[in-house]
Structures are given as structure tokens and as C-alpha cells.
């Protein structure tokens, strides 16, 4: 399967909290503005209490979800696959502790 390259020149990758994330025990994000021929293949959040990265479940497409997310800021990283191989990219910004459904959070990362 050939991926059609997307062009989001000048845009940072953004996490959008999915509209179904209205319950504090359910957290879902959609990854937006992935430039070029990259595919986002996984998303993880950092669990502060055990100092480990925990995988979000790929619900569908570019949407990833997690039950019982940690309270406080949420630090995410995402795995990309492309011509340069497979590697992890960590967001430079955390999702705020008072996240709301529909809000977007800039990763301060560009893929190009």
C-alpha cells in the first residue's frame, strides 16, 4: 500500500482531544498535521507514578485512547514510520491537567 503524502508545511503536529473524551476516566486523542509520508503507528503516555511509558490503544485511524488516564499533565510521545525508518517523537508540550474534549494541543514538533 502506498501512502499519499500530506503537505502541512509550517504546521506542527497537533494532538486533538477527541470529542468523546467527556468522562475523566476516558482519554482519546487524534493526531493531526502529520506531514509527508509518515504514518503514526503508536502513541504512549508517560505514567509519572511508575516512571513508565504506557501504550494507548489504536481505536481507529489516527485516534488513540486510554482508560483511566493519570491526573495532572499528560505527556505523550508518538511513533512514526516512514522512509527514515521507525522512531519515537516526544511532544515538547504536555497536555494540560484540565484538558477538555475538542481542545487541541501543539506538540511543537514538525515532521518534514
From TrEMBL:
Domain Expansin-like CBD intervals: 25-107
Pfam families cross-referenced by the UniProt entry: Expansin_C
InterPro entries for this protein: Expansin_CBD (IPR007117), Expansin_CBD_sf (IPR036749)
Name of this chain's protein: Expansin-like CBD domain-containing protein
Organism: Vigna mungo (Black gram)
Amino acid at each position: 500500500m502506498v501512502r499519499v503524502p500530506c503537505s502541512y508545511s509550517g504546521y506542527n503536529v497537533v494532538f486533538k482531544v477527541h470529542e468523546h473524551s467527556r468522562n475523566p476516566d476516558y482519554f482519546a486523542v487524534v493526531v493531526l498535521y502529520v506531514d509527508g509520508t509518515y504514518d503514526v503507528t503508536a502513541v504512549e503516555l508517560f505514567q509519572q507514578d511508575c516512571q513508565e511509558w504506557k501504550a494507548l490503544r489504536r481505536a481507529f485511524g489516527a485516534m488513540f485512547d486510554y482508560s483511566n488516564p493519570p491526573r495532572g499533565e499528560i505527556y505523550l510521545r508518538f511513533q512514526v514510520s516512514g522512509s527514515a525508518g521507525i522512531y519515537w517523537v516526544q511532544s515538547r508540550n504536555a497536555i494540560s491537567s484540565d484538558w477538555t474534549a475538542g481542545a487541541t494541543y501543539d506538540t511543537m514538533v514538525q515532521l518534514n
